[in-house]
Specification:
about 1000 residues; mainly alpha; about 0% strand; 5 domains
């Protein structure tokens, strides 16, 4: 006993230590609350960050569990209000995703707690709505959806956040009133419309021709659609059931509007579900239902039995959520307490004595039933076996997680491989297409060269035939001249023959006369003397001898002339025969030449038309290929500028004029085909370029202007094809009208002119001075604003007291900090601009640099003006708030405007800066300072507004039931009036935003419809 007592005095008692720890834990509620808020803040910051990746499920689950732990969303909003959601679109997008999960799966009080921030969410949605693309537009649509979801659940508290209800609960939600069911259906239509808008917005922002669902950026945009799919499936199911119920109570004509709206939403939802089910990302996370081929027929009551509720299935995860959140319990147990094992028993025996047979209180020993060593061994082995089972289970879970991760990685790699394979196939297809197009162009070139060579050969043959014709013509002329000479000789010989015959007749007459005279002489001889007779007779004989000699001579001459005449007649006959034969040969040759020339001319015309038609067909293919590219999904990523589009339109218009001139020249003589072929080829390429560049430009402009530009481009392509078809036929070529195509090109050019960035219309020498003036004016405006704020602060301290003075001081102090941050930003921007000019970018002075980079300079001027204007408006709003005449909301809006304006100034300043510039780093730090100061102004304004509103409590204790009822009715009337006015103001704000967006294009280069857009 002494030994036992001494042992008990030496060993400290462990029980008080454990109790003290537990007591300390029970009194540490404040520490537990701080740990909870800290853990929640860490999870929220990890879930909502600026990285363009999907929100991790474990961080979102921690936020959801946090709302159930505190039965609300106070901690969540406390952490979210510290985030700069208005300055980073990705951050705002991920906030919307997490907030959507909280609204669906969080504690029911999340919706009530979040309604307090409805106005801030509305402002943020309108602010992001100014951006026409990217995450900004998506954030605006998502925020509208979340606001609509909160309003729906507030109006219909029977609906849980995840929208899971039975048919009986759905009937109870309408309270058996057809009016309630009618209104509930309208609200569900509005709710589903917001869901579909987000669906369409996400899909339209993605390049669906690529495997975007396996990329981190694509998953960041697609992840929130899981919540949308879950909501949409329930809304569609409940809408179908409510419409059948309404058709059983109301006439069909009354519900025509409901049916039309349902038909429209059914088509959209069916298409979106189908497109989503084909994405690799959703296949691993969710099983999307498919809607029926045709919508339900609400006019047939029995069709309700054919309706099948769409069920969204989420596959079970490899590891349970609890495996990621192990509750640490070691702090609740004292580590000094030995475990209850065999070693613990031995220590107990060493301290307090053994429990052997010598122990008088050991009843087992007394009964002879002492516990066997084998039993202890069995218990020990059982305990070890249980520990091994637990370890094996943890290993199994861990291996399951690893397998799931590896399987996911394999799926990602397979998807990436599929995408790369697709891209490779697409590249090969494009390569084959380009190779085929190159071969076609080569063939066209070879055919054109062959035709040119054929035309050259034909022209050479024509020239040779022309030379032969000239020689034959000269020979024919010689023959004709020779024939004329022979005719003249023949006439001369004929004349001579006539003279000879006259001389012969004269000789005959002389002979006859001499004979008569001789006879007379003989008659008179008898009467005369013989002397006289002899004398006369001698004279007559002598005269007769002379006459005979003369006659002989004349006969000789006459015979010579006859021989000459015969020779000439023979020669003339021969010459005539030779001339006739030569003339016939020459005529045959001329006829043959003319027929050959006609054949060659016909062949030449055919070749000309063949080459022209081939060129026209190729031109039509080029224009049609350009039109086909507009439907190619890969073309969506192509972009172009309005300046380039306008320049291409002008070149195309000039080419159309050349085409018309070449057409007129070809129609007039049908010879100048080469000029027309060249004009057609150039025309096709230029018009195709206009079509492609016009479509690429439409990807960079707002939707309305993009649609108008796309329609004009398509109309231009159609007119070009029509003109080319008219030029193919000989009958319609002369009547082919280029005016309609010229009108279409003018329309495209006019739209491009509207989209061109309109500068400040300054002379180059004035831009540098204007930059300095605007920067100086901005600095002066900021200084003046800071001085006015200081003056207002002093005035407020002298006049105001209590909470009002505290609120005014806090607001004006935050405004002063913002002015100081803006001043630092402006100075940093000046230093950075000076570095940009001095870095040797091709200008000798600042003015020349500003003039050379006029568009960047104009953006810088616009940003400076916006900063100065925002500072002035902030001071005016703060002055009104301090005087009690303004609204806190105006001050917050001005703060957001300043943040946007300074962001514009930063972007305009650093666009040409070097990445490693120290002044660029200072400018970025100054920008962060402005963002923090803006957040400070918003926070102080909200805090001041809450403080003032808390002091204005409503006291209805002195009012009677009738007065309360009266004021309740007045309040309802006022609420209706305010809602109507709110709707009108929202519409007015939308129009103002639209007009501001158009006018902002003057400085930003977006284009518009008024003066700023041409």
């Amino acid at each position: 006993m002494d030994r036992v007592k001494s042992s008990m005095q030496q060993v400290p008692n462990p029980i008080p230590k454990v109790l003290s720890r537990r007591a300390g834990g029970a009194n540490s509620l404040e520490v537990e609350k701080e740990n909870f808020e800290r853990n929640q803040a860490v999870s929220i910051n990890k879930a909502i960050n600026t990285q363009e990746v999907a929100v991790k499920e474990k961080h979102a689950r921690t936020c959801i569990l946090g709302t159930h732990h505190e039965k609300g969303a106070h901690t969540f909003w406390l952490a979210v209000n510290r985030l700069p959601l208005s300055s980073n679109a990705v951050l705002c997008w991920k906030f919307c995703h997490v907030f959507h999960k909280l609204l669906r799966d969080g504690h029911p009080n999340v919706i009530k707690d979040s309604m307090r921030h409805k106005a801030d969410l509305n402002d943020m949605s309108r602010m992001w709505g100014h951006l026409s693309e990217g995450y900004g537009k998506l954030c605006s649509i998502y925020l509208k959806l979340l606001i609509t979801k909160m309003e729906f659940h507030i109006k219909n508290p029977r609906f849980p956040g995840n929208l899971q209800m039975s048919n009986r609960q759905l009937d109870e939600a309408g309270e058996n009133d057809v009016n309630n069911f009618f209104q509930l259906t309208v609200e569900m239509f509005d709710y589903l419309e917001c869901e579909l808008n987000l669906f369409l917005g996400v899909f339209s922002s993605l390049d669906m021709s690529r495997s975007v669902s396996v990329t981190a950026a694509g998953q960041c945009r697609l992840a929130p659609l899981i919540q949308v799919i879950l909501d949409s499936s329930h809304l569609y199911d409940y809408t179908v059931k409510l419409l059948f119920k309404l058709h059983s109570c109301l006439p069909a004509d009354t519900l025509q509007g409901h049916r039309d709206r349902f038909q429209e939403q059914f088509k959209k939802l069916k298409s979106l579900f189908y497109r989503s089910s084909n994405l690799q990302y959703f296949k691993r996370l969710i099983q999307i239902p498919q809607l029926p081929e045709n919508p339900p027929n609400f006019l047939r009551a029995s069709a309700l039995s054919e309706h099948i509720s769409p069920v969204v299935v989420i596959p079970a995860e490899a590891s349970s959520p609890e495996s990621e959140h192990v509750v640490e319990t070691e702090d609740l147990v004292d580590t000094d307490i030995p475990p209850l094992t065999g070693t613990g028993d031995s220590k107990f025996d060493d301290l307090f004595g053994t429990s052997a047979a010598t122990d008088p209180f050991n009843f087992n020993s007394q009964n002879g039933m002492r516990k066997d060593d084998k039993d202890r061994l069995i218990e020990q082995l059982t305990a070890e076996l249980q520990a091994l089972k637990e370890e094996l289970e943890s290993f199994r879970l861990e291996s399951g997680r690893l397998c799931q991760a590896l399987r996911g990685r394999v799926n990602e790699l397979e998807a990436e491989l599929a995408e790369q394979t697709h891209l490779k196939q697409q590249a090969l297809g494009e390569s084959e297409f380009l190779r085929a197009e190159l071969d076609d162009l080569r063939r066209v070139k070879e055919d054109t060269e062959k035709e040119q060579r054929s035309l050259s050969e034909i022209e050479r043959k024509a020239q040779a035939n022309e030379q032969r014709y000239t020689k034959l013509k000269e020979k024919y002329t010689e023959l004709v001249q020779s024939h004329a000479d022979l005719l003249r000789k023949n006439a001369e010989v004929t004349r001579q023959m006539t003279v000879a015959r006259a001389a012969q007749d004269e000789v005959e007459n002389v002979k006859k006369e001499m004979q008569d005279r001789l006879k007379v002489a003989q008659d008179s001889a008898s009467q005369q003397s013989n002397e006289q007779l002899g004398t006369q007779l001698s004279a007559l004989v002598a005269e007769k001898a002379g006459l005979v000699e003369t006659v002989s001579r004349k006969e000789v001459e006459l015979s010579g002339l006859g021989a000459e005449l015969e020779r000439l007649q023979s020669s003339l006959t021969n010459e005539r025969e030779s001339g006739v034969k030569a003339a016939e040969a020459l005529q045959n040759q001329l006829n043959e030449k003319e027929s050959r020339e006609q054949a060659l001319e016909s062949e030449l015309v055919s070749l000309r038309w063949a080459s022209l038609r081939a060129a026209l067909e190729e031109a039509g293919k080029i224009v049609q290929d350009s039109l086909n590219q507009l439907e190619d999904p890969a073309h969506i990523s192509c972009t172009s500028s309005a300046d380039y589009l306008v320049s291409r339109c002008q070149v195309a218009l000039d080419c159309v004029e050349r085409l018309r001139s070449s057409r007129d020249g070809f129609v007039s003589d049908n010879t100048d085909v080469s000029g027309l072929v060249r004009a057609v080829t150039q025309f096709a390429h230029l018009v195709g370029d206009v079509i492609v560049q016009g479509s690429a430009t439409s990807h960079m402009v707002p939707v309305e202007q993009a649609d108008a530009l796309a329609d004009s481009v398509k109309a231009c392509g159609a007119e070009a094809l029509t003109l080319l078809c008219q030029l193919k036929e000989q009958e319609s070529m002369g009547a082919a009208d280029c005016s309609r195509l010229r009108t279409a090109l003018d329309s495209v050019k006019a739209l491009g002119e509207k989209l061109r960035p309109r500068g400040l219309e300054l002379q180059q020498g004035e831009l540098g001075d204007l930059v300095e003036q605007e920067m100086a004016a901005t600095s002066a405006a900021v200084e003046s604003a800071a001085a006015r704020i200081e003056e207002m602060l002093n005035k407020s301290r002298a006049v105001d007291t209590g909470i009002k003075m505290e609120v005014n001081e806090r607001i004006l102090a935050s405004c002063t900090d913002l002015m100081q941050a803006i001043r630092v930003l402006v100075l940093s921007s000046k230093d950075l601009q000076r570095d940009i000019v001095e870095s040797g970018r091709g200008a000798a002075s600042m003015k020349e640099f500003y003039a050379k980079n006029s568009r960047w300079t104009e953006g810088l001027i616009s940003a400076s003006k916006a900063v100065g204007w925002g500072a002035t408006m902030l001071v005016d709003a703060a002055d009104q708030v301090v005087q009690g005449k303004g609204k806190f909301e105006e001050l917050m809006v001005c703060s957001h405007e300043i943040a946007a304006s300074t962001a514009q100034l930063v972007a305009a300043s650093k666009v040409k800066a070097e990445k490693g510039s120290s002044n660029l780093s200072r400018l970025q730090q100054a920008s962060k300072g402005v963002t923090q100061a803006t957040a400070g102004v918003v926070a102080s304004t909200k805090s001041g507004k809450s403080q003032i509103e808390d002091t204005e409590t409503m006291d209805f204790s002195a009012m009677t039931l009738t007065q309360i009822k009266r004021q309740e009715m007045d309040a309802q009337v006022l609420v209706l009036e305010l809602e109507t006015r709110l709707q009108k103001e929202r519409e007015r704000l939308g129009e103002l935003r639209k007009k501001h967006y158009e006018l902002a294009g003057v400085a930003e280069g977006w284009g518009g419809e008024e003066e700023g857009t041409g």
